[in-house]
């Protein structure tokens, strides 16, 4: 053997190379004694192991890796889940009511079902009852003769020629038959007495007896495969959740890891808590096989429903707290689409909202109320057309309208007027996707930024006075008249219209700043969008929103854009909802545990009623927003609006002269005889509009005249609107 040169560096791991040592003489007795003593820390001497020394006793099982005592007592106490004294369904009014309602509904249904078929049942009963009577008499007589069983035994004894056995059997039969005939006689006597009593008694006795006896006889007389009553259900509308059903469903969702784990160990799916009633349905908490995440099952809601033979909106898998492999599978008594959502609490006559406190916003599949909050929050609503995002967003505004302190301003950039019903309580409202509305929406965002700056100064002032201990708006400051720190709700529906317009980039940047700054200052930004890609909704905005409601979306990208990165992977999947049929359903994130909820449905008529109450509350508080005059009195007009109306096409600036011609054409009675100078004078009060020199090429020559810029005009309109609304 050549010895490697130790001075040469190399990668060879010398520790594994067996060293050549001189042979050592081992005293076997000593070595065995040493091993038996099991000196701790001493490695077994492998080299000296031979057939004699190998211990072939079965290996002893190791003790528990983590002795339970290693875990602190208080942690153990916290982990010990005590079973509730009362069943889940009996622990809340909601549960009791749901159980009672379910049972009553079922009973009512069964009753009605059979009532309709009662003539058929009566005919069947009349047919089978006489047969039952004869069959009954025959059975009684056969019983009295005590031949059943005995006859065959006697025959067998006769065939074997065992006369004494035959005689014994017959003697036994005779003994039995004697007392049985007595019983029959007694029963016959009782029946005759009964019949006489019935014949002599009042008619209702006979009726009652017939009602009891005839159906009884009919059941004795009917063939085994022909029941008198029809089956009420086919049994696949509601399946009581059983461990077997859950196991079968989970092994049918095509998750390889579940199937292979169950193939190896049928108990790989376990239930840490018994399956129990929970609201109008049953809840199974399931521990999936090792390594399978509950979110993988949540994503296969459709397959799960198919495996259970139930409509999809009856099956609600969710990730459960504890660990990632724990699934909470709730199966309703009926599909959510057939469960009547309770009326929105905001519709109640006395409903009032304090924006500093939670208010009812949605319901879970179990019809539990889910509360939402607005202060110190920004909201993002996303979903494809028909998912119900406009309605959900409007619901927040309706809630805000019931807090008279709240100032509501916003833009609906779709232009259909879904929010027009809120106009009486809004200080600013724009509707449309034309350039003018987009420009106003942009100017509004700029104003919001300024407002945030103003508010931060005010907060600083109040903080110095000790009135803003956390340097943010408090309920007291919000209520303090003149503090300028009341809740300001700024909303934008279909924001993608603005973000993809020429104002988009700048608007996105400013809005991001407002979102970051505004939370503590009482500025609440609410955004609704249909296309949540990064051009339509800058990531800077999505990142800074803390409350999200993702309604039906088409794909994972849209889902994660609204609910946040990895939401889809974590099992928060709004892709499972169908637009239109499941309108209003979505995943709510940011308010406690993320969950699937359905926003309360308030149609436009009902919304009108809420707004009327909001107006009354605001009138009492002296806080009704002041509206631009033209909204109150239709025929009134304003020179700024008229200028916007007659503005020549896409021109960035226009001569006064041209504009005057347009004005005269629009309203001859009001503008007849106007010249450039008159327009300049009329525009004086509006600081934002500056009359400047505007150059034009006319017939090849450059001509300069007095005129105004379009951008200035739009800013002046926005500024005026805000002033009018009493800001
Ligand atoms: N919570 C709800 N419960 C039941 N139905 C609802 C709910 N919300 C909305 N809907 C129904 O869904 C329809 C569509 O709602 P909505 O207009 O809010 O959708 P959208 O997502 O804004 O669609 P689009 O982008 O086309 O406007 C509504 O007309 C309404 O009938």
TrEMBL record:
FtsK domain mapped to chain residues: 356-560
Gene3D superfamilies registered for this protein in UniProt: P-loop containing nucleotide triphosphate hydrolases (3.40.50.300)
InterPro entries linked: FtsK/SpoIIIE/SftA, FtsK_dom, P-loop_NTPase
Residues that bind ATP: 383-390
Keywords attached to this entry: ATP-binding, Cell cycle, Cell division, Membrane, Nucleotide-binding, Transmembrane, Transmembrane helix
The keyword Transferase is assigned to this record: no
Gene Ontology biological process terms from the UniProt entry: cell division
Keyword set includes Nucleotide-binding: yes
Record-annotated membrane-spanning stretches: 181-205
Basic and acidic residues biased stretches: 7-17
Protein name: Cell division protein FtsK
């Amino acid at each position: 053997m050549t010895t490697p040169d130790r001075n040469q560096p190399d990668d060879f791991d010398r520790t594994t190379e067996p060293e050549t040592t001189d042979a050592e003489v081992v005293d076997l007795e000593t070595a065995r004694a040493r091993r038996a003593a099991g000196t701790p820390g001493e490695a077994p001497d492998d080299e000296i192991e031979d057939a004699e020394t190998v211990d072939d006793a079965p290996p002893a099982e190791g003790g528990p890796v983590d002795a339970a005592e290693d875990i602190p007592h208080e942690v153990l106490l916290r982990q010990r889940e005590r079973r509730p004294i009362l069943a889940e369904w009996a622990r809340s009014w909601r549960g009791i009511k749901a159980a009672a309602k379910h049972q009553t509904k079922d009973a009512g249904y069964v009753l009605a079902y059979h009532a309709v078929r009662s003539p058929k049942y009566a005919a069947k009963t009349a047919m089978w009852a006489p047969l039952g009577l004869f069959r009954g008499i025959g059975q009684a007589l056969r019983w009295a003769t005590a031949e059943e069983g005995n006859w065959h035994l006697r025959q067998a004894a006769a065939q074997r020629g065992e006369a004494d056995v035959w005689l014994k059997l017959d003697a036994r039969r005779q003994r039995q038959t004697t007392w049985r005939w007595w019983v029959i006689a007694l029963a016959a006597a009782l029946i005759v007495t009964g019949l006489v009593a019935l014949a002599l008694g009042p008619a209702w006795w006979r009726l009652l007896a017939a009602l009891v006896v005839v159906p009884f006889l009919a059941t004795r007389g009917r063939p085994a495969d022909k029941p008198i009553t029809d089956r009420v259900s086919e049994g696949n509308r509601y399946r009581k959740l059983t461990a077997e059903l859950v196991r079968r469903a989970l092994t049918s969702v095509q998750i390889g890891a579940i199937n292979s784990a169950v193939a190896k160990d049928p108990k790989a799916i376990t239930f840490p808590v018994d399956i129990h009633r929970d609201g109008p349905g049953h809840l199974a908490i399931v521990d999936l096989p090792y390594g399978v995440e509950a979110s993988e099952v949540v994503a296969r809601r459709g397959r799960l429903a198919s495996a259970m033979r139930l409509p999809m909106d009856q099956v609600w898998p969710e990730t459960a707290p504890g660990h990632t492999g724990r699934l909470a599978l709730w199966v309703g008594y009926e599909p959510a689409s057939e469960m009547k959502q309770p009326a929105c609490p905001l519709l109640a006559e006395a409903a009032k909202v304090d924006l500093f406190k939670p208010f009812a916003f949605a319901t879970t599949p179990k019809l539990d109320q889910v509360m939402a909050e607005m202060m110190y929050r920004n909201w993002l609503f996303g979903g494809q057309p028909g998912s119900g995002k406009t309605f959900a967003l409007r619901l927040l505004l309706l809630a805000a309208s019931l807090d008279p302190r709240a100032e509501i301003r916003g833009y609906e950039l779709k232009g259909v007027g879904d929010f027009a019903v809120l106009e009486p309580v809004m200080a600013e409202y724009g509707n449309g996707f034309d350039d003018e509305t987009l420009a106003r929406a942009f100017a509004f965002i700029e104003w919001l930024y300024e407002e945030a700056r103003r508010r931060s100064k005010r907060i600083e002032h109040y903080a110095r006075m000790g009135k803003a201990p956390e340097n943010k708006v408090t309920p007291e400051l919000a209520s303090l008249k003149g503090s300028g720190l009341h809740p300001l709700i700024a909303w934008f529906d279909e924001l993608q219209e603005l973000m993809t317009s020429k104002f988009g980039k700048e608007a996105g940047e400013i809005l991001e700043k407002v979102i970051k700054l505004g939370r503590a200052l009482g500025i609440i930004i609410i955004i609704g969008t249909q296309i949540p890609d990064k051009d339509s909704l800058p990531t800077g905005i999505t990142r800074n929103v803390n409350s999200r409601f993702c309604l039906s979306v088409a794909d994972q990208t849209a889902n994660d854009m609204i609910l946040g990165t990895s939401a889809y992977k974590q099992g928060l999947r709004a892709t499972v909802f169908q637009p239109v049929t499941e309108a209003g359903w979505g995943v709510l994130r940011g308010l406690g545990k993320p969950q699937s909820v359905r926003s309360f449905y308030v149609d436009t008529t009902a919304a009108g009623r809420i707004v009327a109450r909001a107006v009354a509350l605001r009138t009492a508080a002296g806080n009704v927003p002041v509206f631009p005059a033209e909204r109150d009195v239709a025929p009134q007009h304003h020179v700024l609006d008229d200028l916007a109306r007659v503005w020549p096409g896409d021109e960035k600036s226009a001569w006064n002269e041209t504009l005057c011609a347009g004005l005269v054409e629009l309203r001859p009675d009001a503008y007849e005889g106007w010249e450039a100078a008159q327009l300049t004078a009329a525009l004086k009060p509006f600081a934002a509009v500056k009359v400047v020199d505007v150059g034009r090429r006319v017939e090849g020559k450059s001509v300069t005249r007095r005129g105004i810029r379009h951008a200035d005009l739009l800013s002046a309109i926005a500024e005026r609107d805000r002033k009018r609304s009493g800001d």
